[in-house]
Design goal:
60s Ribosomal Protein L30, Chain: A; six-stranded mixed beta sheet; 2 domains; alpha+beta
Length: 285
C-alpha cells in the first residue's frame, strides 16, 4: 500500500483468530470490513455447544467483541450478511438477532437496523449452522483523512412504502458516500407473497423494489455501483439477464452472481445493491 492509501487492520483475542490467513477487521476511509464470523468460542477454537440459537449468539458475540475493540458499538453496523445451513433456521436466528439490534435502543436521528441479506449455503466451514459478516461505519476514517476532516458518525436510514418493509432490516442505510440496500425478495406489495410466475417475473419484482428504494433517496439506477444476485438455480441466469438489461441498459454496476441452496420465502431470486452517494453523510471525504 502507499502512504496515500493507508489500510488499518486489527485482531483481538476475544474473537476467533484468522490463523494468519485474514484479519478480523480491516478499515479504510470510513468503513470497517469484518471477516465472516463462525460460532467459534475464542478460548477453545471449537464450535459452541448447542443448536442454531447458541451458534447465532456466538457469531454475534464475536462480531460485538471485534466492533467494541475498534471503539464502536453494534449500532454503528450498516450491513449484516447472514449465511445459514438451513433456511428454516432463520426464525430462530432472528430471535437472537433482535437482542443485538433493538431499533428502539439506537441513539440516532433516525432509528434503524442494519441493511441485511440472508441466504442458505450448501455448507459452512467446520460444519457450522450459521456464519455472519458485517460492515461497520468508521467516523474518524483512516489516513489520509486530516484531523480537521474527521467527524462524529451520522448514519442516514430510509424506508419507502413502495418496497417491502421488514422490522429486522432497513431498506437502505447510508454512511459517507454509499447507500447499502437490503436484499430484496420478489414480494407483491399488496399481499406480501411471492409474485405469480417464474424467475423472470421474480427478477423483475426484485429490481422494481431496488428501483423504488433508490428513487426514494433521490437517486436513480445509474447511481448503483454494485449489484449482488442470489439465485436458487444458476441456470436461470440467462432469463434473469433478459430482465436485468431492461433496468441496467448500460451494464454499468459491478456485479456478483451466486447460486445458493435456498432463499427466504422459497424465492427463486434475491437481489441487493450498493448505491453511490455523492453528497455523502458526515464525514465527507
Amino acid at each position: 500500500m502507499t502512504n496515500f492509501n493507508a489500510v488499518s487492520a486489527k485482531n483481538i483475542e476475544n474473537a476467533p483468530s484468522g490463523n494468519g490467513l485474514y484479519s478480523q477487521t480491516v478499515a479504510f476511509s470510513h468503513y470497517n470490513n469484518l471477516s465472516a464470523q463462525l460460532p467459534i468460542e475464542p478460548t477453545t477454537g471449537k464450535l459452541v455447544a448447542g443448536g442454531i440459537k447458541e451458534q447465532a449468539e456466538q457469531c454475534f458475540n464475536n462480531i460485538q467483541a471485534i466492533v467494541e475493540s475498534i471503539d464502536h458499538v453494534m449500532s454503528d453496523i450498516v450491513r449484516i450478511t447472514v449465511f445459514v445451513k438451513d433456511i428454516q433456521d432463520v426464525d430462530a436466528v432472528d430471535e437472537v438477532y433482535k437482542t443485538f439490534f433493538p431499533a428502539s435502543a439506537i441513539a440516532r436521528a433516525v432509528a434503524y437496523v442494519p441493511a441485511r441479506t440472508t441466504v442458505e449455503a450448501s455448507a459452512l466451514p467446520m460444519g457450522a449452522l450459521v456464519q455472519m459478516e458485517a460492515v461497520v461505519s468508521h467516523g474518524d476514517g483512516t489516513p489520509p483523512q486530516a484531523v480537521e476532516d474527521r467527524h462524529g458518525i451520522v448514519i442516514w436510514a430510509n424506508n419507502t412504502e413502495n418496497a417491502p418493509k421488514c422490522s429486522l432490516s432497513t431498506q437502505t442505510v447510508a454512511f459517507s458516500h454509499y447507500n447499502h440496500l437490503s436484499a430484496q425478495l420478489p414480494l407483491d406489495l399488496k399481499t406480501g407473497e411471492l409474485v405469480a410466475g417464474g424467475v423472470k417475473e421474480q427478477a423483475e419484482q426484485c429490481l422494481k423494489h431496488i428501483k423504488a428504494i433508490v428513487e426514494s433517496i433521490g437517486h436513480n439506477l445509474e447511481d448503483v455501483v454494485k449489484v449482488n444476485i442470489f439465485v436458487k438455480n444458476i441456470t436461470d441466469m440467462d432469463a434473469v439477464d433478459e430482465v436485468y438489461k431492461t433496468f441496467f441498459q448500460g451494464g454499468i454496476p459491478a456485479r456478483r452472481t451466486v447460486g445458493v441452496s435456498a432463499l427466504p420465502n422459497d424465492a427463486l431470486i434475491q437481489i441487493d445493491a450498493v448505491v453511490g452517494n455523492a453528497e455523502g453523510t458526515p464525514p465527507k471525504a
